Automatic annotation (TrEMBL):
It comes from Pelobium manganitolerans. This is beta-galactosidase. Residues 714-833 form the Beta galactosidase small chain/ domain. Monomer. SUPFAM superfamilies: (Trans)glycosidases (SSF51445), beta-Galactosidase/glucuronidase domain (SSF49303), Galactose mutarotase-like (SSF74650), Galactose-binding domain-like (SSF49785).
Length: 915
């Protein structure tokens, strides 16, 4: 440990620990129970001791067999220079799980601190040996002796840890110094500051520096007429305002003086911004009404628990910003200081939360911890809300202290409750409400909604919710649950990642920030550049209707580029070079609508797809939208036309089957049912069979006949309105392609499924290449976030939120299929779709069950399906159907069974093995 010399009027910070999970410092350590207990050894600090191989892992709901027995002792030796003897030295702990008793050289530094997530400090000036070795001892109890602390912090729906999990350092100050500083910088340029200090002083001065370190405005000063506090007023003309879109920061330099001599100096980064809540209307930042696109975030990393780092904070915020989020809620405790610093500098609105989860602190304890939170966090411009506990863990006696101690008087919410003009209820159904929520009068801002579980939630249902929120005047947006899966590395179980079954896999990203499908859905749904749906037809005039859903950014501050792509089908000669260009960003003010013009070449209609990428003022991608130009029937015809048609089709009846041959290809079709029984090519079986089988429809194909139509064999069923109203036709062409045409009526008025199934052994698949939307799978209530193109996917057996965290998942529904090449351990084969909006279903994922049975993903029978309607998916707290219109079953109305009104599905199969 080294010390450095600094200006005696400034605060020095000397770390006794590392600054985070990546630079821990070894301390002596003794754990009383669990792993590696009963002996003195070493541990990295800061850390959660379970992740370092000590103690016992516990999830919040678990009955802890070591409760009250799991404690630890820390020891660390450090030196203090002799010249610090005339200064004030404080030891600061940023966070300890959960009760901490601190000794310096065998003497108590102060009373035991109870409460994990709050920075606390002791003045140890009189306990130190200057110019000599000093011994720091910390006794830590994982569970508190104060049951209200356990109620607020240790009985929650999250992992519980023990240890000195945030940094420890010394603060070295002059004898007379500023002890507290609270700043309120309004959008008007009016700045107020309240200070407390020790000793005698007669003046406070303040200088303001801009982002380039240049003085902004004049120096302000305030005379102090006795006492040990001061209030300073200043006014600055036209400061750059702070918002999530433009996080402009200044440095405020405060100096404490006496008779012209500078006693102490403090620097604080601040932002000028005003928060206003208008009753039954909304939340305004700098005069603009907000829609918060937020997420809940735990301080968490799989290998270090709640010990994080500045680099991780940067990564977390960048991922949130990349999803076009503008807000984050601290769940369910205050975060590391560096996370708030990053929110200040990169731009996120923050709801900072006093810990509580169905239980709360008693008033004396809560008051003390709230004061510590306020002192630590009050000056961050990113914080625009305070939250008093969570889901019933609200101590109402503390509400007045939020207002009393916050110079900015930021709004206070009670998450899960209707309080203070905010309806923040959690996990309400889309159509919920009798006189409240979306049908009420208060500002609606769910602090948790669309509770993720495995692949359900987050993106699933968000499009419905967000359009309702965007268009509801009293909606202020909301906060998804939760940012990342809480999967912790188990040092007691060979390093497996444990999510405690279905309790922890709630994230949009995996434990190590693996991006799940909902990540990209959110990115598109929450894009501040909103495209109206547009079909690419011959009459396209290059105009796209767009809406500016930014709050402060004009669209002309963004940039737009476009690309035209022609995909190689089977013949490289058909491929065309990618064409690209730029488009002028139109002048569209925030919350207004306008037109984006794309100046395309005359032959644009000969390409397969158009892509438009929007970038923000910092040249970060907002989203890339894809617009298919070619239709599936055009692509299938182009492929069919390339195949040589110089073979002869023959057939015969053998037993119950039609045996059909084309060159080396041989297929069997059942004469009674029309089911494909077998496929062989050059005496090698292709195990694709047992279809088409209608899902949720009557498989009443009957009366099959076979006949030649010129050089094509047609095997077709007969239509009968009562007995065989669904019809099936196979056509075998001399080029080896086989056409399947099914006309059918879904089985029910309300149905999850429409389409046909086939069998194929999962053990034989290696992967797929397909043209369509990808690479992520979709659900009926999560269709956005994909991109049209040609994709290659290798087989995996991933269940979202479970080991292995391999994305994108292979199995599931894939939208807008044009063609698919199945890569197998035997012979590859291809299927072409002639119809728009065909879904490719690949096998059945290994879904985990959940204790509430709301998740319930549905899949048809068989292994590979070609669907025209697919189901939605639920989440932890809601069934699929309660997430909005897109979550409802599909509706198909036709009881008359008229052939011309049947749904029609046309596919082409190529089992020849030719490319």
């Amino acid at each position: 440990m080294s010390f450095f010399s600094a200006n005696a009027q400034e605060t020095e910070k000397i770390y006794l620990s590392g600054k985070g999970k990546d630079d821990m410092v070894k301390w002596d350590f003794y754990c009383s129970a669990g792993q590696n207990s009963g002996k003195w050894t070493k541990i990295g600090v800061p850390s959660c001791w379970e992740l370092q191989g000590f103690g016992k892992y516990d999830y919040g709901f678990a009955k802890d067999s070591l409760r009250g027995k799991e404690t630890a002792k820390y020891r660390y030796h450090f030196n203090v220079p002799a010249n610090y003897k005339n200064r004030v030295v404080q030891i600061v702990f940023e966070g300890v799980f959960t009760d901490a008793t601190v000794k310096i050289n065998g003497k108590l530094a102060g009373p035991t601190h109870q409460g994990a997530y709050y920075a606390f400090r002791y003045n140890i000036s009189k306990l130190l040996k200057y110019g000599a070795d000093n011994l720091l001892e910390v006794d830590v109890a994982k569970h508190s002796a104060n049951e209200s602390v356990n109620d607020a912090e240790r009985r929650g729906d999250f992992w519980l840890f023990g240890g000195v999990f945030r940094p420890v350092y010394l603060e070295v100050l002059p004898q007379q110094h500023i002890t507290e500083l609270a700043i309120d910088a309004k959008a008007s340029g009016v700045l107020k500051a309240q200070l407390s200090f020790t000793g005698k002083a007669d003046e406070i001065q303040m200088d303001l520096l801009d982002a380039n370190g240049k003085a902004f405005g004049k120096k302000f000063s305030q005379k102090i007429d006795g006492g040990q506090s001061a209030f300073l007023n200043a006014n600055f003309e036209n400061p750059k305002l702070w918002s999530a879109e433009f996080p402009n920061l200044y440095i405020a330099k405060f100096s404490l003086l006496n008779k012209g001599k500078v006693l102490h100096q403090i620097d604080k980064k601040i932002g000028f911004r005003t928060i206003e809540v208008k009753e039954r209307d909304g939340v305004y930042v700098n005069g603009v009404k907000m829609k918060f696109k937020g997420v809940n975030r735990h301080s968490f990393w799989p290998t270090s628990g709640r010990t994080t780092s500045k680099a991780q904070s940067v990564e977390d915020v960048k991922l949130m910003k990349d999803m076009n989020m503008n807000a984050v809620r601290m769940a369910h405790y205050p975060p590391d200081a560096h996370f708030l610093d990053v929110c200040d500098s990169l731009g996120l609105y923050v709801m900072d939360e006093l810990a509580g989860w169905h239980g709360h602190y008693d008033t004396p304890t809560g008051k003390k911890l709230l004061k510590e939170m306020m002192t630590h966090d009050v000056n961050h411009p990113s914080i625009i809300f305070w939250a008093n506990g969570n889901e019933g863990g609200h101590n109402l006696d503390l509400d007045r202290y939020f207002k009393e101690w916050d110079i900015q008087n930021r709004p206070v919410v009670h998450p899960w409750a209707n309080y203070g003009g905010f309806d923040t209820q959690h996990y309400r159904q889309y159509n919920y409400g009798i006189g409240n929520y979306m049908n009420g009068h208060d500002i609606v801002m769910p602090t948790e909604f669309l509770h993720g579980l495995y692949d359900g939630g987050h993106g699933a249902g968000l499009d419905d919710y967000w359009e309702a929120m965007w268009n509801k005047p009293t909606s202020a947006g909301g906060f998804l649950w939760v940012f990342a899966d809480e999967g912790v590395v188990r040092t007691d179980k060979d390093g497996i990642i444990d999510t405690d079954k279905d309790r922890g896999p709630d994230g949009i990203v995996g434990p190590f920030h693996e991006k799940e499908g909902s990540y990209f859905t959110i990115k598109e749904v929450w894009s501040p550049v909103h495209f109206e749906a547009r079909e690419m037809t011959a009459g396209f005039d290059g105009k796209f209707n767009i809406e500016n859903r930014y709050d402060f950014t004009n669209i002309n501050q963004c940039s737009f580029t476009w690309e035209l792509k022609k995909f190689n089908l089977l013949d490289n000669s058909l491929a065309k070079p990618i064409l690209s260009g730029k488009s002028n960003a139109p002048d569209i003010k925030p919350h207004a609508k306008g037109v984006l013009n794309i100046d395309l070449p005359k032959d644009w209609f000969s390409y397969d797809a158009l892509y438009i990428t929007a970038k923000d003022v910092n040249q970060h991608e907002i989203f890339t939208w894809s617009f298919p130009i070619s239709k599936p029937n055009q692509i299938s015809k182009a492929i069919l036309n390339q195949a040589k048609a110089n073979n002869k089709v023959t057939y015969s009846s053998i037993g119950e089957s039609f045996l059909v041959k084309v060159k080396n290809l041989q297929i069997k079709i059942n004469r009674s049912t029309g089911i494909l029984e077998s496929v062989n090519n050059e005496n090698r079986e292709i195990p694709f069979n047992n279809g088409p089988v209608l899902q949720e429809g009557a498989n009443n194909f009957k009366g099959f006949t076979a006949k030649m139509d010129a050089d094509t064999l047609v095997i077709a069923s007969v239509f009968n309105k009562k007995e065989s109203y669904n019809t099936l036709q196979w056509s075998v062409y001399p080029n080896g392609f086989i056409q399947l045409k099914v006309k059918y009526f879904p089985g029910e008025f309300y149905t999850w499924f429409a389409g046909v199934n086939f069998s194929f052994p999962e053990s034989e698949i290696k992967g797929v290449e397909y043209m369509g939307n990808g690479p992520y799978r979709v659900w009926k209530n999560r269709m956005k976030g994909t991109e049209f193109g040609v994709w290659h996917k290798d087989y995996n057996n991933t269940e979202t939120g479970e080991i292995p965290f391999v994305y994108p998942e292979f199995k599931g529904y894939h939208s807008n299929m044009y063609w698919c090449k199945f890569l197998t351990k035997g012979q590859d084969f291809k299927v072409l779709a002639a119809d728009e909006d065909t879904f490719l279903r690949l096998f059945t994922p290994r879904f985990m069950d959940d204790q509430w049975h709301n998740y319930v993903p549905l899949f048809p029978t068989g292994d590979i399906s070609f669907m025209q309607a697919i189901p939605s998916i639920g989440n932890k707290t809601q069934t699929a159907e309660s997430t909005g219109p897109m979550g409802q079953k599909n509706i198909y109305y036709d009881y008359e069974k008229s052939p011309e009104r049947a749904k029609e599905l046309t596919l082409y199969f190529d089992f020849t093995g030719n490319d």
